[in-house]
Design a protein that fits this description.
The chain is mainly α. Helix content is 74%, strand content 0%. The chain contains 5 helices and no strands. It has helices at 2-24, 35-42, 48-61, 65-79, 84-92. It is elongated. It starts with a helix and ends with a helix. 10% of the residues are buried.
């Protein structure tokens, strides 16, 4: 099953990374500015497993954002063709 493979990879890669980051918290090392660090900073008492699972949730949640955005834009441009020419003119400027 694919989900179990994803869970195995999370446990193999993300959990140790999250544990390392949680262990370095407050140790004077430079904080990285990425999603994992943002989750660690926003979840004050989270375990490495919880941080890894939250990271995975963000990855799954963001998977279709761009395709949904493009679909929404194209749909609205087809529904309102009067905006095509002004948009085209603005792009060409």
């Amino acid at each position: 099953m694919k989900l179990s493979r994803v869970t195995q990879n999370v446990n193999k890669y993300l959990v140790p990374l999250a544990a390392q980051r949680l262990g370095n918290k407050g140790a004077g090392e430079q904080e990285l500015k990425d999603t994992l660090q943002w989750i660690i900073d926003s979840c004050k008492k989270a375990t490495a497993q919880e941080v890894a699972q939250q990271t995975l949730a963000y990855i799954f949640a963001s998977a279709y954002q761009m395709s949904m955005l493009i679909t929404f834009v194209l749909y609205n441009l087809c529904k309102h063709p009067e905006y095509l020419q002004p948009l085209r003119a603005e792009i060409l400027r």
